[in-house]
Design brief:
By secondary structure, the protein is an alpha/beta fold. Helices cover 43% and strands 15% of the residues. Strands 1-2-3-4-5-6-7-8 form an eight-stranded parallel β-barrel, surrounded by four helices. It binds glyceraldehyde-3-phosphate. InterPro entries: Aldolase_TIM, TIM_sf, TrioseP_Isoase_bac/euk, Triosephosphate_isomerase, Triosephosphate_isomerase_AS.
Length: 248
């Protein structure tokens, strides 16, 4: 039985006061973490303060990190720095980082290893472009991304990893994959994990859907057998909407 995980990805939004007010408003309203894991992945500058206000059931995540422990990497943030702040999750390989900041499967793999070495839970993103979906290469694309991202992890690490399947054409566009499309591709991703890491890993790993998820669409997605959660951008920015996502 896989525990659902709903995570907000604020991306580069909210000022400091808005971020704190938001977390104060939701921290005591999120469901018990025995039933569902709930996280907000916020801009790095706010993480320390948000952790202080996270309460019992909400957890805080980062949106990226470097894979090295320290050194001459101007502007970067090390995994150990996030851990020091009490951060729980880190999003890795989001399509926006792949497209705009040269993230590759290789760096995602290094970061995934670095996350585990530092006690962070990686949320590893994958997903196809519109062109790839129309060409019929969706499965090939996510297969390669996931195979490379998780290469070399131990069984226990794969079981703890969270994957977010986010079709790029559905991110911030209002276009959502249908429940069936999302379930089918996530089922395929699970079969890739089984092939690469064994059935025990595939049965345990949690795979979220992301891409224009809203309070009104989350229940239909979560009712699908392969879908274990959601990674939500736009609809995680408003308090009522965020809490609505948790009522699936
Ligand atoms: O990480 C979140 C995704 O990019 C989805 O964003 P969205 O819910 O605004 O489409």
């Amino acid at each position: 039985m896989r525990k659902p995980i709903i995570a907000g990805n604020w991306k580069m939004n909210k000022n400091y006061d808005e971020a704190i007010e938001f977390v104060k408003a939701v921290a005591n309203k999120v469901p018990s973490s025995d039933k569902v894991e709930t996280a907000i992945c916020a801009p790095a500058l706010y993480l320390r303060s948000l952790v202080e206000h996270q309460g019992e059931n909400l957890r805080i995540g980062a949106q990226n990190m470097h894979f090295e422990a320290n050194g001459a990497f101007t502007g970067e943030i090390a995994p150990g720095m996030l851990k020091d702040l009490g951060v729980t999750y880190v999003i890795l390989g989001h399509s926006e980082r792949r497209e705009m900041f040269n993230e590759t499967d290789e760096t995602v793999n290094k970061k995934t290893h670095a996350a585990f070495a530092n006690g962070l839970i990686p949320i590893v993103c994958c997903g196809e472009s519109l062109e790839e979906r129309e060409n019929g290469t969706t499965n090939q694309v996510v297969d390669a991304q996931i195979k490379r991202a998780l290469a070399g992890l131990s069984l226990e690490q794969v079981k703890e990893t969270v994957i977010a399947y986010e079709p790029i054409w559905a991110i911030g566009t209002g276009l959502t994959a249908t429940n069936e499309q999302a379930n089918e591709t996530i089922g395929y991703i699970r079969s890739v994990v089984a092939r690469e890491h064994g059935q025990e890993a595939a049965d345990a790993i949690r795979i979220q859907y992301g891409g224009s998820v809203k309070p009104s669409t989350v229940a239909g997605l979560m009712a699908q057998p392969e879908i274990d959660g959601a990674l939500v951008g736009g609809a995680s920015l408003d308090v009522e909407s965020f809490l609505g996502l948790l009522e699936f």
